[in-house]
Amino acid sequence: LKSEKSGQGMFTSISIPRGGPVTAGMSIYDTMQFIRPDVSTMCIGQAASMGALLLTGGAPGKRYCLPNSRMMIHQPLGGVQGQASDIEIHAKEILLLRERLNEILAHHTGQSLKQIAADTERDNFLGGEDAVAYGLIDQVLAQRSLAAGE
After folding, report:
1. What pLDDT is attached to residue 9?
2. What are the respective helix, strand and coil percentages of the chain, to the nearest 5?
3. Is 74 a catalytic residue?
């Protein structure tokens, strides 16, 4: 967190083609929101699932992708086996996580919760310009000098 003292923001490149565990991603997201310096995010290649949430969780005006990057949003997925009562417990948990993830996406994109829920029902892929229009990112960068603050 050296950047916190220098007044400079932090830059995070995101290349996450398969998402990952929701709780691990949420710990990164929470840290991004908690720390003082702005966190600038850039998708390089693909930001899928939790990767897309981390991308859009960057500081407003500082969320980017490169021209051929792809973003993908969807509802969380998982699997569980065991006793019926255990399966019910896990089903309730994944539904709560889905609601929280949708709330975060709605907050950062400006889309309604209803729209986010519909758009994440199945895999939803977006290119750079579509991601800008949706509110996932702020700008598609073709040159480094176009990034905010440079």
Report:
1. 85
2. 45, 20, 35
3. yes
